[in-house]
Amino acid sequence: MAEGSIDAHGTWDYVRKHSPFVSYDSINTNGSRLLKVLSFQEFKEDLAAGTVPQFVMMSPNMLNDGHNTTLDYATKWARKFLLPLLAEGVFKEKTLIQLTYDETENYSEPNRIASLLLGSAVPDSLKGSTDNTFYTHFSILSTVENNWELPNLGRFDVGANVFKLVADITGYINMDPPNVAAVNNSVSYPGAFNRNHTIKLTAIPPPNLQLVGAGGISVLDSVREQWKKEENLDTPYDGSGSVYDGDNVPIYKPQAHNGA
In which domain, by residue range, is 205 found? Predict the structure, then answer.
C-alpha cells in the first residue's frame, strides 16, 4: 500500500511507482487481488478491526519518506507512525516490522543501507543488537518464503540470505556471496527497459524453473506456467546468491537445479 497526498499544494508528494503491485497484470486484471492494494487509511481501519494481513508492504509519500524533505522530517514521521504499532497487545500474533530504505545518500559507497527490525518477533536477546549478515532487498522475499514455506520466483530471491532471527528458528543456513567484496551496488547494469543498450541483458530474462528456494519448495506454479516455453533458455539465476553491478554483469547459464 502507498500513502496518498497529504498536501493539496505539495510538490511531488505522491508517485504512482510507490504502489508497484498495480504494475502487474496478475493484479491489475484481477479484481479480488486489486482490492487488496489499499491506502494508509485502510490500514488504520484494518488495524482497529484486528484484520491486518500476514504481510503488508507500506510506502510513505515523498514528504514522509524524506525524499523531498529531510532526514529529521522523515524520522519524526516514522517515529509517530511506528510507536503506536509497537505497543504491547496491538497485534495478537508475533509481528516483525522492517523499516528500510531503497538507496544510500552517498553514491561513493556501494549502496549499503540501514534497516531496522522491530516488533514482538524480535527476541529479547537480539534487541539493540547489530546483524552483519549480508542482505539485499531480495532478502525480504526470501525471508517471507522461508518463514511461511512458500514457493519461489526462480530469480534472485533464491540464494538471498534470510533474516537471521528467522533463519535461527527454521535452520536455514546463510552464506555470504563469493563476489560481494568486488561489487558496487551504486552502479547498476542495464535492464529490460533501458533503451540505450542492445546487449542480451535488455531482454527480460527467464526465471530458472529448476530452483528450490528458502521455503524448501520449487518455483511457483503460476510462474512455471507463464515461462514454460522458455524452460530451455539460458538464465542469469543460479540460486548462488551472487550479486552484480554495472561492471560485473550477470552470467547466463543453462537452467539447472541449485541443490537446495
Answer: 137-260
